[in-house]
């Protein structure tokens, strides 16, 4: 045998060379079969999720609710056992049970059901049980039977779908259409009372169940349904927008016009019933301006209760409150105060502040427990879905209109809520001027809605104005300021014959309201400067009224005031109603060695944090404008002469939800921290932020109360300074 140099036989070498391509070919064949298997598995997986998309989609939403745990939903669930009616107790689990059976019937008409299908269909009921375990264990008495009913419905639907697939399909379609039509008709006929009757949890489960079933019906003909939904999306994209805010024509509105700030302030000041008490005491007349920041229903509660609690201990407080500034939810709070509390001012003579008589009627908190979340949520799930499915036709009002009606009903049969904005204030009345701040999405600037022309709107627009004869309802003005994104659409306001503005939530621009309040303070101070110049013989342009009786702005309250002639010395005070914050802008309080960073989330987080920082900075600048130059942060304490009296709410410590429904327990928590002057200077639990802020509010309001005791009456609430050794 002939061998090669390395000892291998030539035939062996040739054989190996012939087997090489064969091995590669076999390997390629196996890889090809693997690709086919992977492709088949991918197609199978895609088909699995495509056919089950409606069930998976709704199940995913319920799971997302559990994971995200939005404060509004957790608060509703946590307080369900104490606030829900019997009808709501029995009703909120029925839609998921019905949707389980109907959804499986729709799926069984196309595919054989698997055990995983039953699990996905029961996921809403499972999720509701999980919510009960996490947030309200007492609710298990309703969710566990509901889960058992869903499991039974799933088993029945599986058996019936196998035996009678066509009948099951027809029954599921009929039930879905009839239930959606009935719910839609009820919502259209009674957009407020019907959703409130069934409750927010039932609205949520019913809405998600019907959307899932409608998607299930659409999945029966995916190509046709996809084309139609594309048409609906196109129509929604090309739609002209929401309906304009209803205008009140000049012939239907009182012909009071829109007075300027200067003219209105002078008329209001001259009509004050307790001027003589300050003239006799030689003290300037206190003029209070309050602002309430945004934050949904808890901000509304804070604004309303802080002002009402101050009135409860100081009956003369409404006579000195010239104006309130509201942003977003704070606008609802200032509106409620003007409608419900301020008209109850029972005194015209000056009365020093004292603890209210326990036998007297307390603050009416019923408006704050009004269910404002169910009406817009029902409109979103039912009316807006129907509008979406009927392209190019706008049939139903948007959620903003519905919520505005719900807000107007917070104080039933109260004419102030629906009267024209210009008519909402009289210079000789006890109601303050109400300013509602919105954001113009076209310019990114403020638009201030107010009965006074240009009030608080330095460098901003205002409505109504001298050039606009039309008006809007007061409740509409307040709610334009509180147009939350997504839940309610932006507002379309006609400001002149051929001009509209699209207005959004006022918190987009500046959430505290301090910028607008300080603009109003600047306008009043400017009036004092012009009066002083006019009285000195200077030629001053502007609406000065009678400068023979000048308005004199005085920077301190405790010093003697100049009441010579018919002039009136004025001491301006500012009461910002804000979220508790013990940090000053520009300071770093803790190390951040590894801050989170996200390419997707960073732009949105930046906008949100900038919004919050702008509000905090506005409050800080307002504080500096009132504080002595040597202590602009008032770190060394404060006194009555500073004129800055903040009222703070520890939102995170009280676990208050951002939304449009507040439980009775949460309302009681906010009330307990509002103007509790008896807590000032008393020992408290230093480990409790709530106790610390309760004392802070009590002391700040005691400082404010001293403004209403110029004669130094004994036993009256008040103190001259706080926080100084």
Describe the structure.
This is Patatin-like phospholipase. The chain crosses the membrane at residues 53-74, 86-108, 115-133, 139-157, 169-190, 196-216, 223-242. Keywords: Membrane, Transmembrane, Transmembrane helix. It comes from Sphingomonas kyeonggiensis. α10 (165-189) packs across α12. This protein has 27 helices and 12 strands. The protein is elongated, with a radius of gyration of 33 Å. It folds into 2 domains: 31-238, no CATH class; 252-349 and 361-370 and 410-542 and 554-585 and 601-707, Cytosolic phospholipase A2 catalytic domain. A hairpin with a 5-residue loop joins β3 (433-440) and β4 (446-449). Mean pLDDT is 86; it is low at 1-9. Strands 1, 2, 3, 4, 5, 6, 7, 8, 9 and 11 form a 10-stranded mixed β-sheet that branches. It has a two-stranded antiparallel ribbon with strand order 10-12. With 725 residues, it is α/β, with parallel strands linked by helices. Helices cover 51% and strands 9% of the residues. The chain has helices at 10-51, 53-68, 71-78, 80-83, 86-91, 94-108, 115-121, 123-135, 140-163, 165-189, 193-198, 200-218, 222-238, 261-270, 275-281, 296-313, 317-320, 329-341, 374-389, 399-408, 415-418, 474-480, 514-535, 602-626, 651-654, 664-672, 689-705, and strands at residues 285-292, 321-327, 433-440, 446-449, 461-463, 491-496, 499-505, 551-553, 568-579, 638-639, 647-649, 721-722.
């Amino acid at each position: 045998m002939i061998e090669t140099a390395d000892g291998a036989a030539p035939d062996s070498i040739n054989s190996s060379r012939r087997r090489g391509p064969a091995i590669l070919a076999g390997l390629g064949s196996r890889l090809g079969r693997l690709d086919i298997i992977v492709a088949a598995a991918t197609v199978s997986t895609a088909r699995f999720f495509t056919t089950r998309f409606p069930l998976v989609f709704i199940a995913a939403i319920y799971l997302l609710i559990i994971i995200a745990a939005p404060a509004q939903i957790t608060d509703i669930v946590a307080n369900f056992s104490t606030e829900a009616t019997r009808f709501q107790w029995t009703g909120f689990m029925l839609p998921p049970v019905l949707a389980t059976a109907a959804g499986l019937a729709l799926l069984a008409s196309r595919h054989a059901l698997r055990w995983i299908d039953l699990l996905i269909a029961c996921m809403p009921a499972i999720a509701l049980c999980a919510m009960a375990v996490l947030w309200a264990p007492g609710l298990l008495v309703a969710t566990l039977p509901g889960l058992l009913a869903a499991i039974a419905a799933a088993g029945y639907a599986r058996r019936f779908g196998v035996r009678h697939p066509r009948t099951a399909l027809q029954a599921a379609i009929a039930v879905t259409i009839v239930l959606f039509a009935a719910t839609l008709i009820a919502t259209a006929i009674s957009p407020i009372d019907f959703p409130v009757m069934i409750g927010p949890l039932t609205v949520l489960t019913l809405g998600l169940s019907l959307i899932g079933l409608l998607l299930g019906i659409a999945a029966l003909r995916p190509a046709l349904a996809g084309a139609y939904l594309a048409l609906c999306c196109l129509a929604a994209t090309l739609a002209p927008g929401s309906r304009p805010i209803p205008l009140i024509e000049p012939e239907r509105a009182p012909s009071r016009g829109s007075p300027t700030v200067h003219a209105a302030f002078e008329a209001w000041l001259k009509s004050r019933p307790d001027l003589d008490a300050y003239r006799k005491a030689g003290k300037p007349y206190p003029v209070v301006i309050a602002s309430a920041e945004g934050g949904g229903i808890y901000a509304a509660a804070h604004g309303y209760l802080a002002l009402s609690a101050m009135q409860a201990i100081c009956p003369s407080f409404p006579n000195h409150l010239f104006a309130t500034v509201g942003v977003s939810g704070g606008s609802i709070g200032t509106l409620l105060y003007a409608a419900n509390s301020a008209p109850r001012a029972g005194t015209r003579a000056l009365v020093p502040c004292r603890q209210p008589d326990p036998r007297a009627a307390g603050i009416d908190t019923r408006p704050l427990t009004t269910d404002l979340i169910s009406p817009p949520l029902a409109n979103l799930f039912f009316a807006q879905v129907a509008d979406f499915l009927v392209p190019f036709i706008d049939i139903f009002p948007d959620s903003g209109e519905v919520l505005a009606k719900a807000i107007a009903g917070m104080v039933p049969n109260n004419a102030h809520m629906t009267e024209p904005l210009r008519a909402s204030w009289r210079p000789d009345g006890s109601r303050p001027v109400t300013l509602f701040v919105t954001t113009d999405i076209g310019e990114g600037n403020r638009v201030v809605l107010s009965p006074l022309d240009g009030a608080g709107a330095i460098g901003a627009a205002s409505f109504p104005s001298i050039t606009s004869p039309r008006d809007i309802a007061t409740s509409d003005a307040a709610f334009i300021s509180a147009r939350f994104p997504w839940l309610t659409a932006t507002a379309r306001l006609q400001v002149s014959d051929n001009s509209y503005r699209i207005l959004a939530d006022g918190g987009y621009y500046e959430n505290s309201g301090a910028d607008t309040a300080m603009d109003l303070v600047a306008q009043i101070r400017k009036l004092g400067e012009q009066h002083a110049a006019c009285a000195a013989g200077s030629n001053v342009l502007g609406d000065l009224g009678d400068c023979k009786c000048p308005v004199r702005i005085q920077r301190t309250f405790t010093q003697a005031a100049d009441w010579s002639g018919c002039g009136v010395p004025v001491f301006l005070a500012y009461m910002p109603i804000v979220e508790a914050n013990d940090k000053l802008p520009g300071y770093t309080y803790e190390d951040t060695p590894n801050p989170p960073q996200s390419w997707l989330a960073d732009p949105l987080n930046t906008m949100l944090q900038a919004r919050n920082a702008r509000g905090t900075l506005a409050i800080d600048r307002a504080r500096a404008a009132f504080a002595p130059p040597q202590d602009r942060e008032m770190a060394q304490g404060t006194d009555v002469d500073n004129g800055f009296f903040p009222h703070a709410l520890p939102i995170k410590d009280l676990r208050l939800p951002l939304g449009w429904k507040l439980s009775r327990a949460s309302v009681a928590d906010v009330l307990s921290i509002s103007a509790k002057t008896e807590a000032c200077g008393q020992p408290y639990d230093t480990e409790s932020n709530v106790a610390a802020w309760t004392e802070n509010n009590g002391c700040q309001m005691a400082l404010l109360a001293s403004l209403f005791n110029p004669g130094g009456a004994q036993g009256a609430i008040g103190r001259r300074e706080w926080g100084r050794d």
